[in-house]
Amino acid sequence: MMKANADEIFKKRLERHHDELKWLYMELYNNDSMFAELCTNMYLFYTDRRNPLKKRDKQREENPGWFRKNDMLGMMLYIDNFAGNLKGVKQKLSYLENCNVNYLHLMPFLDSPKEHSDGGYAVANFRKVRPDLGTMRDLSELADVCHEKGLNLCMDFVMNHTSEEHEWAVRAREGDGEYMSRYFFYNNYDIPAQYEKTIPQVFPTTAPGNFTYLPEIGHYVMTTFYPYQWDLNYKNPRVFNEMMYNFLFFANQGMDIIRIDAVPYIWKEPGTSCRNLRQVHTIVRMMRMIGEIVCPSVLLLGEVVMEPEKVVPYFGTLEKPECHMLYNVTTMATTWNSVATKDIRLLKRQMDIVNSLPGEYTFLNYLRCHDDIGWGLDFSFLNQWEMQEVPHKRFLNDYFTGKIPGSVSRGELYNDDPVTQDARFCGTTASMCGIESAESEQDADKWEAAVGLDIMLHAYMLAQSGIPMLYSGDEIGQLNDYSYREDPDKAADSRYVHRGKFRWDLAEKRRDGKGLQGRIFNALNQLEQIRKQEQVFDASAKVYTYDVHNDSILCLTREMAGDKFFGIFNFADQPETAWMQEEGSYTDLLTKKTVTLRDLTVPGHGFYWVKRKN
Ligand code: GLC
After folding, report:
1. Closest Cα to atom 7, ligand 1: which residue?
2. Which CATH superfamily is domain 541-612 in?
3. Is 486 part of the annotated catalytic residue set?
4. What is the mean pLDDT of the segment spanning 443-459?
5. CA 315, CA 262: separation in Å to the nearest integer?
6. pLDDT per residue over 94-112, tens digit each?
7. Less crowded by CB within 10 Å, the N or C end of the chain?
8. pLDDT tens string 345-355
9. How far, in Å, is the centroid of ligand 1 from the Cα of 543?
């Protein structure tokens, strides 16, 4: 690209956003020279951007809905668990292609202290890859290869805090005022005490409180997460600017999707919950514009693990968008609620809420991720059936830890808080579905039921609107891994129970269609292929729930250009009837057989994917 031409492109993009960007920047910082510095650096990152990435920018600017396609399928994985290091991942890309994955989320890989890493979410250096995983060059090389193969690469951008070993934190601890002002430092407990009155706790048992005392300098520092994760102070424009440079640096390494970690927490005000404050939205909106100016092919994925009314505002408005994608977290938690209760009424309502949002709002759908499941359910709705928050959460945790008679799930509690009586839950999909217990009891019937549930849940996830995201290992039904208990750096954090090493020995067995790995892998593959081929899975399809008058059966309808699809999912473990009277005949998309949708019997944990015959 000719320089003059390239400058023109940058100028045009900057012009489009300049006034709004400046307005918002001044509202937060009122600092002309820092704004000018930001603009200069945006230009420098733009000129540094490799030509193939600029080409990607152009193509995607012309087709902004590029990521809302029915072949988009994500997988998230830990580099070391999956392939040792970044070079190893490059060698294993064919396996991911085999899994139909074209969106790869690499879990945190930046330099982070081994003993105090929070799974990599305590970043010591934003410009350095953890040495055992490789180098920044390995990362950009991996991105290039991924792009050649049609894979999009995603990474975490941990915005809210740094590790206490980050250079800024080290200097702050030495008492350097300039660096102390990049965090929240207090020389007595007055202000922290004021904050503590209104800020809830993220890790009430593993890391209680929101401040950590540093005896060596006699100060308290704000640490919302672990004591070694120091909250950044975004009231300081230096913090904002530098973090935006880090974001653009990763964009230039070839990232396609940036997951903005723990974003609701980034602005703090005493007397508030320090979550989702209006300034957070100002920052995310600025970040979206900065991305659109420098690297418009890059998407922002917001990690907002909150109730729906807090999540949706992170899409911004259609005119002033913020994130491109958000996690469908309430649907995820509500799904497991339906697994435990065999009752889909709350789930149906949740789907209705999601389906009523504008089609541009793209959710990432998932069954499991690297974190625990918090029971963020709509309890005001459940109350009508006498399901009260505290006892119902206890029931769910008892159910999933296998304490309730008839419960086959296995897993562990997380941050069991005696004060709020609010525990969360950890475990893999397969273990939660009962595969682990069935295998240990060598009970063939239970095993069939558990595998059926696992596959049904994936079929249901793949039928939702949005982008499905698999958690590495789920495609072969990987079970909980209890070995973390032997590792002193991990033992206190039960999330590691579902962060085990990827079992390549078991993955090899996927070719045997009768075993666990083959059953799940082949079933998922078939569903993914259908999803890719059938236009009814297009993102612009009309999606809504359909009442089949049975509280155990969820039915989703998709309509697109004359095609009509029903996904019918039985959450009960015995056969149930979907009371429906649909005219015409339908094709079962899996068996290709003809079905009529008249009072259809669905086997326990079974499902149908059917399409109307034209
Ligand atoms: C996010 C991550 C979680 C981490 C936390 C702190 O919520 O998903 O794993 O512990 O941020 O960075």
Report:
1. 262
2. Golgi alpha-mannosidase II (2.60.40.1180)
3. no
4. 98
5. 15
6. 999 999 999 999 999 999 9
7. C
8. 999 999 999 99
9. 31
